[in-house]
Amino acid sequence: MLRNISLTARSVLYSPQTSVRCFSSQSEFEDAQKKLKTLKEEPDNDIKLNLYALFKQATTGDVQGKRPGMIDFVGRAKFDAWNSLKGQTQDEAKTNYAKLVGGLVTEDAATAPEPTGPSIDGLDKVDGLEVSREGKIFKITLNRPKKFNALTLDMYKGIQKALEVSNNDKSTSITVIAANGTYFCSGNDLTNFKAAAGGTKEQVAEMANSAKVVLHDYVDAYIKHEKPLIALINGPAVGIAVTVLGMFDYVIATDKSSFHTPFAPLGQSPEGASSYTFPLIMGSLRASELLLVCKKISAQTAKDYGLVNEVVPDNEFQSQSQKAIEAFSQLPPESLRINKKLLRSFHKDKLLEVNDTECDLIAERWQSKECHQAIAAFIMKGAKK
Ligand SMILES: CCCCCC/C=C/C(=O)SCCNC(=O)CCNC(=O)[C@H](O)C(C)(C)COP(=O)(O)OP(=O)(O)OC[C@H]1O[C@@H](n2cnc3c(N)ncnc32)[C@H](O)[C@@H]1OP(=O)(O)O
After folding, report:
1. Which among 25, 94, 157, 181 has most CB atoms closer than 10 A?
2. In the chain, what are the domains?
3. Does 189 contact ligand 1 (Cβ within 6 A)?
4. Which atom of ligand 1 is found nearest the CA of 156?
5. pTM listed for this prediction
6. Is 81 a pocket residue for ligand 1 (Cβ < 6 Å)?
7. How confident is the model at residue 111 (pLDDT cuts 50, 70, 90)?
8. ipTM score of the complex?
């Protein structure tokens, strides 16, 4: 709330006989009404009351009629504020209104919170990612459309860093993850492990252990994220792009999207804390449908299972999802953080423990024959094109 507006502007509020410089006019009064709508923060109540009184004095002149009764607190306060300007001409009131709004606009610009925390510039250098601030929205966009936004090791690290930067960024109130192209994300880039395929046992173990650290820290960043985390699913989502959704606070999906976690065919195991969040969200049988027998589900089924909040027709997805995130970003930031912390606090320690367990297991799976055969088959498929 704007409380400490400039002394000049405040002086206007309490002295109806304020001497008026002849700079006010109807157009300045109208211009001030437009500027008032641009304030990033709402003025506090006593300023709003004075704006009301000046507006009425400017447009109607001295207050008429009876003072409202005791129980009509608001009506009485408005009457008294207007009455306090009795004797001020309409022109003077227009000038004082414009002066007050001018003070608010100056104050608003000066108090716009600066982004805090590390700059996002370095993050912009990560191939496959775009990181931006759009008003109060901290946006992470997967931008590797030719490879269906499959996640490289750098992208994992870049998203983790972006989540951490957003946590410390006071100029934004929500974090959004979106994607360019026809896919939301095809999951782990299976060529991440290409180097290890056919390597010695030690080389494979070394690859598995370094990948485990990347995965662990990536998922940790979601568990520890303090702002509302929103996913805009513009197309099919595979693997880890699906499993981490259990840690999002709102998910909007186009009706062209699908959700697939092919862990068994890949000789791998569930991650993203999904072995805990999915049974919690959708029940054990539905969780098994996705994570055990690896059924691909539609956007509507994902919504029925509690993984998606809204399914939107594809041709309306961009506009509707943008409208939704802009609305969310205008909610009071402190309340958003406090209420998200409450909602997630009861599971946080468990999620951290689950992430440890899942990462230990998947690191073993990456060294299994089943996994190597699956990855080799995928790479061979690409080679035959
Ligand atoms: C640090 C490690 C952390 C690991 C975390 C654990 C995460 C686990 C997972 O995410 S498991 C899931 C992994 N993802 C997949 O198994 C999907 C693999 N992709 C496919 O099966 C298919 O591409 C498809 C079904 C998604 C789409 O098939 P199709 O429509 O036939 O398209 P293409 O296969 O031709 O793909 C187009 C283009 O994109 C490349 N690509 C797609 N997905 C991936 C991928 N996951 N990894 C690498 N590359 C991918 C594909 O090779 C094609 O590229 P090209 O045109 O050949 O250059």
Report:
1. 94
2. 2-112 (1.20.80.10), 129-379 (3.90.226.10)
3. yes
4. 1
5. 0.75
6. no
7. low
8. 0.98
